[in-house]
Amino acid sequence: VAHEQHIAVQFALGASRARLAFGAFVEGAVLATAAGLLVMPLAWAVSRIVASLAWTGARPLTMVITPGPATYVAVAAAALAAGLIVGLGPVVLIGFREFRVTTARTVFGATRRWRNGLVVSQVALSFALLFCAALFSANLAGLRGKNLGYVDEGLRWSRLELRFGVPRSYDVGSYLRALVDQLSALPAVESAALAVAFPTSEVRHMTARFSIERANASPGTAAQGTMDRISPGFFTTTGAAIMRGREFTWNDAATSAPVAIITQPLADQLFPDGDAVGRQIRIPGRKPQDLTVVGVSADFSPGDPRIVAVPRVYVPMMQEPATSSAPNVLLRFNRDADILAPLQAAVAGLGRHQVSSVRTIEQQTDRLLTQERLLSSIAVAFGLIGALLGALGLYALLAHAVVRRSRELGLRMALGATRSAIQALVVREGIRLVAIGAAAGIPLALGAGVVARTLLFEISPFDARVLLATTIISITIAAASAFVPATRAARTDPAISLRAE
After folding, report:
1. Closest to 188 (Cα-Cα) out of 342, 71, 66
2. What are the residue ranges in the chain where pLDDT is below 70?
């Protein structure tokens, strides 16, 4: 469009349409190729960012993530396709338009609707991408801010690792009690406890459900639940509430009667007719099958915020020695302190385990949200890219419009229009296009939300707050994109503009 006068002159001097079209096509292809070359180092960096978001292990990532030849070939093909698309518009115009030097200013005047349509399409797509970014971000924020049913402030987590060559047989009860006593005596530690799964490091640990029955009840009185093995002091350390009954003690050993603590959702299903404390539950196929309920706890998350209201059974790990070889450590702190070195010394002093790291419970829980963090990060990245492209398209269109309408703007100012009025004129045009694009993008955004419904937790794909936030962001971007062209239009000198005409 900027070269329309030049094209008209070339055409008048005898240049063929094919030559002019080929020149326009080569220009688009060169631009796209340059973009493809520039994006290579960006792809290298982004691959590492994505990998760091996905990896949740304590050790460094060893997977090879450097883009390979196939990746570069794909990027080159995408750049070539972009070049074809970019060069297609001018080629079509040059092939079918009549060019006359005296009317060169109107050669592309008829393409205004197409240009507006392209910008509106960009805005609609960027609106949908921004909506998805806001939706996934709100979903992640909701999971992170969810009340998990225990007190996470001051709670830290570590994983015991078996040392090489330790004997397989040992007195489980005595060792676990000595370990908990050692941990409780550490500086700034208020209480300590052990758990086999909490907070579960893998969702499958707490989603493999099995049948839990009410002992001595009619067939059909059963629920599907999960299990964890814990030490005495678990509920005190985590802050999860015992509503009725008691917590485990060290007397609940392998030689004593099998006992269990159940959560309120399980108690509601198995014992709707009265208190569950003192009654028995049965887990078919497990030995011992019958467990006496000594406590009922309020429902709380086993670590993953997405797991709610799942019936659960907690048993003393002293009565489950085979499954308690390398449990998790939970420490309740009453003040901030550097605990790793004292913790390593205390654990190593007992000669069976070792620890390599300590994390806050928030950090450990956040590792369970890998999918949500990855989706949110990618959606935000695409949303920002879409917003940038929409802003650039709108800026280019308005900047071009200001140049083409310089005579009109000069006349308006000569007839008394103020600079603020000229600015408002250009900004209104940008907001109008964004409003149309947003109206077209809302169905697209809501459709994307419906597709992503299974990836969301306790947030609707039609969330009005997310939609409103996306609209406000889009309008703000439109105003910012229109600011520079509007300022340039307000600085138009009517005398120079009219003299040039």
Report:
1. 342
2. 1-2, 50, 52-65, 89, 91, 93-112, 201-208, 217-220, 321-324, 496-501
Distance CA(278)–CA(92), nearest Å, equals 84
Beta strands in 373-454 (DSSP E): none
Residue listed under structure tokens 């570069």: 72
- State the pLDDT at residue 204: 43
Angle, CA 371 vertex, CA 366 and CA 373 arms, to 5°: 55
Beta bridge partners of 483: none
Pick the closest to residue 56 from 364, 306, 359 (CA basis).
364
Cβ atoms of residues 281 and 291 within 8 Å:
yes
Three-point CA angle 240, 242, 248, nearest 5°: 95
The number of helix segments (H) and strand segments (E) in the chain equals: 15, 13
**pLDDT value of position 43:** 75
Q: Is the dihedral of CA 198, 203, 204, 208 positive or negative?
A: positive
Whole-angstrom CA distances from 313 to 47, 213, 281 are 42, 11, 10
